[in-house]
C-alpha cells in the first residue's frame, strides 16, 4: 500500500493558500484604482482645454458670432468683400502692430476672420462693427480695431490675437 503525498493531491491548506493570495491580489488592485484615477485631470479641466468645432453655415455674410474656447471669447466674422478690400488697402507699415490681412486669415478663406475677443490693452471685450473702422471698438479705453482685428488707434499695443484653428470642412472650423 502506498501513501499519497500532498504533491499528488491538493489539500485544504493548498486551497486556502491560493484563495487567500487571489483575494489579496484583487484587493490590492481595487485599492490602486482610486489612487491612479485621481492622477487624471478633472473632466472640467479636459473640457476647458479641448478643441471646439463651430459650424459656419448659419453665419450670414457681414455677421459676427461669439463662441467661448478655454474661457475666452472668440469672434468669428463672415466678412463682406468690402470689408476684406478695406482691410487690404491699409498700408501695413502705417499700423502700430504691422501685420497683413492675409497673414490673419487662412488661404482661400479670406471671408472668415477668427480672433480672440479680448482687448490687448487691459483685457476688456470689444464690440463688433463699431468705431471708425467698422471692426471692433473697446468702449473701456477707446481702442479701435479694423475688420482684420488689427489695432488702428487707441492705447492697445497689439492686434487682437488669432487663436489656433483649422478648417475641417468648407463650413466647419476647429478651434484649438
Short summary:
This protein has 176 residues and is of the alpha+beta class. The protein contains three helices and ten strands, in the order ααβββαβββββββ.
Provide key terms for this protein.
three-stranded antiparallel β-sheet, four-stranded antiparallel β-sheet, Rieske Iron-sulfur Protein, 2 domains, alpha+beta, 176 residues
Structure description:
With 176 residues, the chain is of the alpha+beta class. It folds into two domains: 9-40; 47-175, Rieske Iron-sulfur Protein, CATH 2.102.10. It has helices spanning 12-37, 43-49, 81-89; strands spanning 52-55, 64-69, 72-78, 112-116, 127-130, 135-137, 144-145, 151-153, 165-169, 172-175. It starts with 11 loop residues before the first helix and ends with a strand.
Helices and strands in order:
Layout: H1 12-37, H2 43-49, E1 52-55, E2 64-69, E3 72-78, H3 81-89, E4 112-116, E5 127-130, E6 135-137, E7 144-145, E8 151-153, E9 165-169, E10 172-175
Amino acid at each position: 500500500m502506498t501513501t499519497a503525498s500532498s504533491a499528488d493531491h491538493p489539500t485544504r491548506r493548498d486551497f486556502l493558500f491560493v484563495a487567500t493570495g487571489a483575494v489579496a491580489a484583487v484587493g490590492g488592485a481595487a485599492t490602486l484604482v482610486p489612487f491612479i484615477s485621481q492622477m487624471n485631470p478633472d473632466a472640467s479641466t479636459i473640457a476647458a482645454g479641448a478643441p471646439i468645432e463651430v459650424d459656419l453655415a448659419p453665419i450670414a455674410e457681414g455677421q459676427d458670432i461669439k463662441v467661448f474656447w478655454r474661457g475666452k471669447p472668440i469672434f468669428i466674422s463672415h466678412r463682406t468683400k468690402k470689408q476684406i478690400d478695406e482691410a487690404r488697402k491699409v498700408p501695413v507699415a502705417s499700423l502700430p502692430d504691422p501685420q497683413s490681412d492675409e497673414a490673419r486669415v487662412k488661404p482661400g478663406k479670406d471671408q472668415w476672420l477668427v480672433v480672440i475677443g479680448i482687448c490687448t490693452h487691459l483685457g476688456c471685450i470689444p464690440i463688433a462693427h463699431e468705431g471708425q473702422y467698422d471692426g471692433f471698438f473697446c468702449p473701456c479705453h477707446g481702442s479701435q480695431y479694423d475688420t482684420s482685428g488689427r489695432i488702428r488707434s487707441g492705447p492697445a499695443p497689439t492686434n487682437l490675437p488669432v487663436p489656433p484653428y483649422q478648417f475641417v470642412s468648407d463650413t466647419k472650423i476647429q478651434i484649438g
